[in-house]
Amino acid sequence: MSASQSPPVFRTPTLLALACAAALSGPAALARPAAGEAEANLAEISVTADDPRPAAGAAASAGYVGGTIGAGGALRTVDAASAGIVSGAEINSRPITRPGEVLESVPGLIVTQHSGEGKANQFFLRGFNLDHGTDIAIEVDGMPVNMRTHAHGQGYADINFLIPELVGAVAFHKGPYFVRDGDFASAGSVRIDYLDTVAKNVALTAFGSFGYARALTIASAPLGQGNLLVAGEAQVYDGPWDVPDALRKVNGVVRYSQGTALDGFSVTGMAYASRWTATNQIASRAVSEGIIGRFGTLNPTDGGDSSRFSLSGRWSMTDDTGVTRASAYVIRSQLNLFNDFTYFLNDPVNGDQFHQLDQRILGGGEVSHVFQGDLFGHPMENEIGVQTRTDAIRVGLFNTANRQFRTGVLDDRVLEASGAFYVDNRVRWTDWLRTSVGFRADGYYGDVVSDTAANSGKARDGIVNPKLGLVLGPWFDTELYVNYGGGFHSNDVRGVTATVDPASPLFNIARSPFLVPSTGYEVGIRNRSIAGLETALALFRLDFASENLFQGDTGTTEPSRPSRRFGIEWTNRYAVTPWLRLEGDLTVTNARFSDVDPVGNRIPEAPTTIASAGFTFGEGLGWFGAMRLRYFGPRPLIEDNSVRSKPTALLNGRVGYHFDNGLSLSLDVLNLTNAKSDQITYYYISRLPGEPADGVADRHFHPVEPTAVRLTLAGRF
Question: What confidence tens digit (pLDDT) does each residue in 468-513 have?
C-alpha cells in the first residue's frame, strides 16, 4: 500500500480489532478493553501499513513485513485464562527449525518430528501425546487441517504447507469449552489466519547447514476494489542423516480480498507438494551395538510424498441485527507414506516396511450469525451457527519391500459426513460479570466399502455438549475465569464398522465407538497490574470416557481405557520496553488412566512438564534478535512407569539487522548448545537380523538435529 492511499477502516468488535492490531504491532497491541466496555458494542479502528520500514515493535525477522488481516471475518477468541491471540510479528520473531513450530507460539504446546520433514509433526499439549493431531483441532483460514479416517492415524494434521511469513495471527483455545470447537478439540484448538495484504512486497533467500535452502516471494497490490496477494515458496533440505532427507517442497498462495472484517470477503487458492526420504525412529540397541550411528537408519527406503490443493472463501456482512459470517472450502490431498518401525519382526525375510495411501477430496463450510441486543437492559450477543464437512476417501495399507508392492492388507473407500449446530448466549450483566452459556450438537455418518467384505458397513452417531463460561472482574487489573464444557473426538470409521482383523480375517475384533466424549473444567486468572506484563494462571481437568484410537500403522482398532488429566499452566508476556519483550510459560500435568489395571495407570508418552522462556529485541531499523529455550520433560513410556524417556532442552537463537534501504539480514543458530537429545522416544518390540523371532523390547528414538546455522537475506520493495 502506498502512502498516498487511504488506509482501510475496519468496523469491528473489540476482539476483532485486537487481532488486526496485533498483526501489525506485535503482542503489545493486545490491550485489554476498558472496564465496563460491552463486547456487543462495535468500535472503529484504522489499520494502516504505509511505512515500508520495519515498524516499532516489528518482528525480529528478516522476512516478516506485516500487513492487514480479517477481510470477510477475522479470528475470534473466547474469554478464558488459557485462550488468546498471538500476532504474526511475535510468531515470526521465533527462530524455528520447521514450519509446524509456528504452533509453539501456543503456550504449553510442543511440536516435534519423528520422521522425515515432509511428514506431519507430532504434538504434545496438556498431558496428551496428540500423535499427529488426535485431540488438537487445527485450522488455516477456516479450513480444517486434521484428517479423519486417515491412513496414518486419526486426526492426522500436516501443517508443512504453512508459510510462516504469511501468518497474520493465531488464535488458540484449550479445553472443550467453546461452541465453535468440535472434533479433535478436547485438548485445544488453533486457528491460523493469513495476511490479506503485506505492508511491503518481500523476497528472501536462505541457506544453512545440512543442505538447507529456501526461497520465498510475497507480493500484494490493489486490484479493482480489493487487493490481490501472491506468494511462492521453494525449499530443499537434507538434514544430518546418513541417508539424506532429500526434502523437495514447493508451495503457493493466491488470495483476493475486499472490504473489512465485518463487510467483506476473501477467496484463497493454495497449492503444495513435497517428497522426502525419512530416517524414522531407530532402536537404541542398534546404535549401542555399532550397527548404525546416531543419525543412521535401519531402512534407507522409508519416506513419502504429499500434495495438497485447496480453494476457500469467507464472507461477512452486518445489518441491523448483527453480523453474519460464512465460509466454505474444498481440498484435495494425497499422501504416500513408507514406514518400517519393527524391521524384521513380522516378516523375517522381506522386512516389515508398509505403504500407507491416503487420497481424499473434502469440502465443507460454516455459517453463523451474531444477534446483538440486550437482556433486561444488559448488553447481549446470541450466536447461532452451522458447520458441515464431507470427506470422500480412498485409504490403503500395503506390505512393501524397498517401496515395492508385495501384498495388500486393505484398500477401502470411505464416505464420511458430519454436521453441527451450535448456540451461544453471551451477556455482560455488570461491569464485573460476564457469562457465556451454549451448547453444540454434532451428527456423524460413515459409509465404508472395504476390500474385506466383513468390514464394510454404515455407521451413525451423535453427541450434544454444553459449554459454560463465567468472567469476574476486572478488579485491580485482574479477571477471574471459570469454564466448563463437553467435547469429543471421532474414531476412524473403519474401526466402527470392522468386524475382522484385515491382516488376519479369521480373527474377530471389537468395534469402536464412533464418537468418544470428553469433559473439561478450568478455573483461571489473568492479571495486568504491572505495566506491560500479562500473566495468566489456569487450573484444568479433562476426563475421557475412552481413549479408543484406530491404529493406522496396523489397520486395526485398539480400544483403550478411560483417563483423567489435571494440571496447572502459568503464562507470562512482558513488554519491558518498546524494543524488548520477555516470555515464560510452564505447564505441569498429571495424566492417568482412571480405571484399575495390573499393568499400571500411567498413560504412555504423556508429558508431565513442558516449559519455555525467551526474549525478543528490536525496534524498527537496526539490530534485532531473539533467543528461546524449550524444555520437554521426561515421560512414562509404558503403563507401569518402569521405562521413561529423557528430557529434552533446546536453545535456539537469532541475531539480525534491518538496513534503511529495505534489506534485512539475519542468522539463526538452532540447537545452540548442540544438545544430544531425542525429539521423541518410544518403547516397543522390534527385531533386528539374527535376533529371536519374538523380537526385543527396546527404546526407539529420533534424535535432535545437531547445531545448525541458517542465514537469511530479505529485501522489501
Answer: 999 999 999 999 999 999 999 999 999 999 999 888 888 888 888 9
698's grid cell: 527396546
Looking only at the bridges linking them, the beta strands covering 696-703 and 282-283 are: antiparallel
Phi, psi of 604 (to 5 degrees): -55, 135
CA–CA distance, 647 with 116 (Å, rounded to integer): 22
Residue range 293-349, pLDDT digits in tens: 999 999 999 999 999 999 999 999 999 999 999 999 999 999 999 999 999 999 999
- Name the maximum alpha-carbon separation found in the chain: 79
Nearest-angstrom CA–CA distance, 463 and 317: 31
Cell numbers for 295, please give them.
543419525
Helix (H) or strand (E) holding 92: helix 88-92
The Cα–Cα gap between 42 and 427 comes to 15
Cis amide leading into 598 (omega within 30): no
CB under 8 Å to 299, separation ≥6 — which residues?
280, 340, 343, 351, 353
The pTM score is 0.91
Question: Which of 439, 600, 560 lies closest to 128 in space, CA to CA?
Answer: 560
- DSSP state string for 610-637: EEEEEEEEE-SSEEEEEEEEEEE---BS
CA dihedral 38, 40, 41, 44 (to 10 degrees): 120
Q: Which residue type is seen at 187?
A: A
Query: Per residue, what are the HEC states of 284-352?
Result: HHHHHCCCCCCCCCCCCCCEEEEEEEEEEEEEEEECCCEEEEEEEEEEEEEEEEEECCCECCCCCCCCC
Nearest to 338 by CA among 263, 418, 280: 280
Taken as a whole, the chain contains a residue count of 717
- Side chain identity at residue 524, one-letter code: G
Q: Which residues are CB-neighbours of 577 under 8 A, at least 6 positions away?
A: none
